[in-house]
Amino acid sequence: MHSRRLINTCIGFTFTLLMVSCKKEYRNGGEVSNPNVNMTTYDFLKSRPQFSSLVTLIDRAGLKDAINGKTTFFATTNYGVDEYLKAMKNKRAIELNDENITYTLDSIPLWRIDSLKTYIFDGAINRKDITVKGSFYPSMFGTIPNVQFRINMNRIYQYTNYVDYVDYVVYSKVIGTLDSDEPDPTQIPDDQVDKAAYCQTSGIVTTNGIVHVLDGYHRLFFNTDPID
Fold first, then answer.
1. Segments of the chain assigned E as strands
2. Which of helix, strand or coil describes residue 160?
3. Average pLDDT for residues 8-19, to the nearest whole number?
């Protein structure tokens, strides 16, 4: 179930960014860009400072070759990684009864970093391949009991003076059935609510695949632990 905050955040993007849905281009920093970048997915991420933490985790997990395959990758920005680190630090501080502990990228255990595979999908899943209804896709991580990953478009009609509609790429962790399929979604327990992540930039074509960049409200691994 998509949170109101996420929807409002997406609506608040500048119109220049929103126009990406109506053109075969992606946008980065408000400037129109050719969707093709003449580098691999890994090299593209490494060339952008906003992914430095993500690249460190990719290196630790030995996933460079995986994301450089014929794949689609949903990239988390440094902000989403930093928020995850804050949550993990808070959790460990409570467990150890020590608020002065540190928790860094090196503190994340390798078994957890391996979950980066949930952001990697075989083949090219570009904007033209994604529908409003959406589809479930198996991630490179493999089967997770009671969890599926869905990729769809969220269609917004807020800018009809300029365009008919705007489509946002949404990547969701669906727990059990889709929230929208439940008779009363308001009765779903918090830990069973689907978790949706919107893309702030989508359709980047690397030499080996596709990159979609998740917005800053997405916390790594869809984590929801309290920060303080």
1. 26-28, 31-33, 71-75, 120-122, 135-137, 147-156, 166-175, 195-205, 210-214
2. coil
3. 35
